[in-house]
Amino acid sequence: MDIRKIDGQISVAPQITVAEIADIAKAGFRTVICNRPDGEGNDQPSFKEISEAAEKAGMQAYYQPVVSGKVQDEDAEKFREILESAPKPVLAYCRSGTRSATLWSLSRAGRVPLHDILTRTKAAGYDMSGVARRILNDGRTPSDATDGTFDIVIVGAGSAGIAVAASLMTRAPDLEIAIIDPADIHYYQPGWTLVGGGVFQADETVRTLSSVLPQGVHWLKTAVAAFEPTNNRVLLEGCRQIEYKRLIVCPGLKLDWHAVDGLVDTLGKNGVTSNYRFDLAPYTWELVRGMKEGTALFTQPPMPIKCAGAPQKAMYLSADHWYRTGALPNIDISFYNAGAVLFGVKDYVPALMKYVEKYDADLQFNHNLVGIDGPAKKAFFQTKTEDGTVKIVERGFDMIHVCPPQRAPDFIRVSPLADEAGWVDVDQNTLRHKSFENVWSLGDVMNAPNAKTAAAARKQAPIVANNVLADMGRGAGVAHYDGYGSCPLTVERGKIVLAEFGYGGKLLPSFPNWLNDGRKPSRFAWLLKEKLLPPLYWKGMLRGREWLVEPKVVKPEIVN
């Protein structure tokens, strides 16, 4: 038998046999639903045979035949009625299981989020993206009317989305460009580390989204529900749809706070904080200033994460404050990293290790935070012993700075644009989708092996803009992305190790060594981070000014 569980109430399967009924009953199923018409195949048992065997095994059986490829709206409603009244758990079957999975998906419309339906059916081996619009329309067949057609549609109005929109408008202001994002606020996220270190105020890192969008770009203030790349459509919440000639996908990533047991319930209190949230970064500084003794823990989850240096930046700035105020000897600092190294590019590790030693920080590698008991001030880490045995390590704390696990947004992970790991699948050089030629991606959501930083998005935006226009016959040729990313590692107040690197860890410094050697802490890099990068972000990157990142054409045409 090939039984595929969808949720706790229902599983689906390809055609079952009479001989398998006894085992199905032993597996705990109390109902079977047949969604295959009798006589569809020469080798299928009749429903009467199945129902008689099911009755003998103490199960109920329902016959709801549906013609392959013709699941009607009323079929989904009938399936919902059966599922609600039938004893659970239920096993539904047809020739391959697809019709049963489709009926379940449509029957859950309006009751279960679309991404959850697509995730569950995808895990069971069934792709329901073809009925996404019907699910969005409460399980009913929608009209084919569109709510607009644009030359270019951009999904996401974060750093990457606004920057690529600005670069496009600078080059071709006559284009009809739509940017989709339900947010009202735009954040300068690289500044949150300095908020947590007492350098910036939180309000310095936030502006209204309307104030930073490029003029002439259409803002669709809604959320994306799904993609139909074969039809050049984006499905929006409320069963609306828009069409595009070119699509750019850059919605960022999802901070999965719920992946750590107990974390959501204690964030912002009990000494639990994170610079990865705008409203919590000030609490980090509050905890640091108030701490005179005790235990301070800093965590880093498995990669990938946005700005891989940020978890240790929080540790360095906190430790530097305690060092300057004389409290450091009374504070036990530990850095719990799910990975095996302090930083992924070895050239920068020696400089960082000097600060680890200066602050007497204990490094614990291969320790992944899996749970927090805030009131008890206990953290739980999963690790492995030398023989491979998994164990849980408990550690008390007075303060803990948490970096949450991160992944692609749900609507991306279940889409046809995603690779097996859930990230948008692009060519790492052109940032063009590997399967859909009129789709590009940049920023944190795509699967190129580069660091997920704002500096990377700043470099990628003009490259994608150039390549999209080249594909439209409005550019000289394609440009390649070298994997550039930058991580200003704030090792103390007033000094930074400016890590700049590309694919394979190749060093890609922006300045000559006499001005700034990125392998050493420098005052210049601090001034760059504190004084120059914020205005460069607001007045340069978000306005299409490509200082130091103007793309270089390397081919006469785009080759997929």
Automatic annotation (TrEMBL):
Residues 2-110 form the Beta-lactamase hydrolase-like protein phosphatase-like domain. Its cofactor is FAD. Pfam families: BLH_phosphatase, Pyr_redox_2. InterPro entries: BLH_phosphatase-like, FAD/NAD-bd_sf, FAD/NAD-binding_dom, Prot-tyrosine_phosphatase-like, Sulphide_quinone_reductase. GO terms for molecular function: FAD binding; hydrolase activity; quinone binding; sulfide:quinone oxidoreductase activity. The keyword Zinc does not apply. Residues 150-263 form the FAD/NAD(P)-binding domain. It comes from the Bacteria. GO terms for biological process: sulfide oxidation, using sulfide:quinone oxidoreductase. CDD domains: PTP-bact. Keywords: FAD, Flavoprotein, Oxidoreductase, Quinone, Transit peptide. The keyword Transit peptide applies. Gene3D superfamilies: FAD/NAD(P)-binding domain, Protein tyrosine phosphatase superfamily. PANTHER family: SULFIDE:QUINONE OXIDOREDUCTASE, SULFIDE:QUINONE OXIDOREDUCTASE, MITOCHONDRIAL. NCBIfam families: TIGR01244 family sulfur transferase. This is TIGR01244 family phosphatase. It comes from Pacificispira spongiicola.
